C-alpha cells in the first residue's frame, strides 16, 4: 500500500530506530567539532515541539539551519504529519531533511530541502535528493552543503 501523508509513521523495534538516529547525530556532532569548532549545534528532543527538526545549527556567520535527521535501512522515510507541516511551512529558510541509508556495504546520506517534505513522505528515497553523499560519507561536505543553501 502506498504511503499516505496523514498515516502515522511505522514504528520499528523498540529503541533500534532511536539508536540509529543517535549514531547519525553523533557523526554530525563529531564533524562539527573537528571541522567547524566555532559553530554550535543543539539537538532538540521534546514532545512539546512536535514537528520541529531534530538539530539546530548556528554557523560562524550567525545563520541558523534546521535539520531533521532520519535513518532507514530501506527506501522508506518515516516523516510524521507534524514534521511535514513544519518543514513545508519553513521551507524558505535553511530547513533540511538528512536521511542516512544503512546497508551491508556501508551508508549514504541523502539531503532534501524542506519544500520536498511531502514528496519524501510519499516516495521515500525514491524522491530526487537535493544532494547525495555516497559511502564513505564526508560529513564536512554534508555540513558545508547544508549551510550554503545547496
Structural account:
It is a single chain. The chain is an alpha+beta fold and 150 residues long. The termini are far apart. The model is unreliable at 7-14 (pLDDT under 50). The radius of gyration is 14 Å and the shape is globular. It has one domain: Trna Endonuclease, Chain: A, domain 1 (3-Layer(aba) Sandwich), CATH 3.40.1350. Strands 1-2-3-4-5-6 form a six-stranded mixed β-sheet, with helices on one face. The protein is built from four helices and six strands.
Topology:
Layout: H1 16-35, E1 40-43, E2 55-58, E3 64-72, H2 81-89, E4 95-103, E5 106-113, H3 117-123, E6 131-133, H4 139-147
Parallel strand pairs: 3-4
Antiparallel strand pairs: 1-2, 2-3, 4-5, 5-6
What sort of overall outline do the alpha carbons produce when their principal axes are compared? Answer: globular
Q: Which residue ranges are poorly predicted, with pLDDT under 50 across at least 5 consecutive positions?
A: 7-14
Instruction: Write the CATH architecture name.
Output: 3-Layer(aba) Sandwich
Query: What fraction, in percent, of the residue positions are helical?
Result: 25-40%
CATH class: Alpha Beta
Keyword list:
Trna Endonuclease, Chain: A, domain 1; 6 strands; alpha+beta; six-stranded mixed beta sheet; 150 residues
Short description:
The chain is an alpha+beta fold and 150 residues long.
Amino acid at each position: 500500500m502506498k504511503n499516505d501523508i496523514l498515516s502515522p509513521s511505522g514504528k520499528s523495534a523498540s529503541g533500534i530506530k532511536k539508536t540509529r538516529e543517535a549514531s547519525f547525530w553523533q557523526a554530525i556532532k563529531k564533524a562539527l567539532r573537528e571541522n567547524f569548532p566555532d559553530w554550535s549545534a543543539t539537538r532538540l528532543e521534546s514532545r512539546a515541539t512536535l514537528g520541529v527538526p531534530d538539530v539546530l545549527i548556528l554557523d560562524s556567520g550567525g545563520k541558523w539551519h534546521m535539520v531533521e535527521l532520519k535513518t532507514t535501512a530501506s527506501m522508506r522515510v518515516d516523516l510524521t504529519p507534524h514534521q511535514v507541516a513544519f518543514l513545508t511551512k519553513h521551507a524558505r529558510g535553511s530547513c533540511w531533511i538528512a536521511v542516512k541509508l544503512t546497508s551491508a556495504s556501508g551508508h549514504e546520506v541523502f539531503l532534501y530541502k524542506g519544500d520536498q517534505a511531502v514528496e519524501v513522505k510519499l516516495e521515500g528515497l525514491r524522491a530526487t535528493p537535493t544532494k547525495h553523499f555516497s559511502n564513505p560519507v564526508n560529513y564536512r561536505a554534508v555540513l558545508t552543503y547544508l549551510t550554503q543553501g545547496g
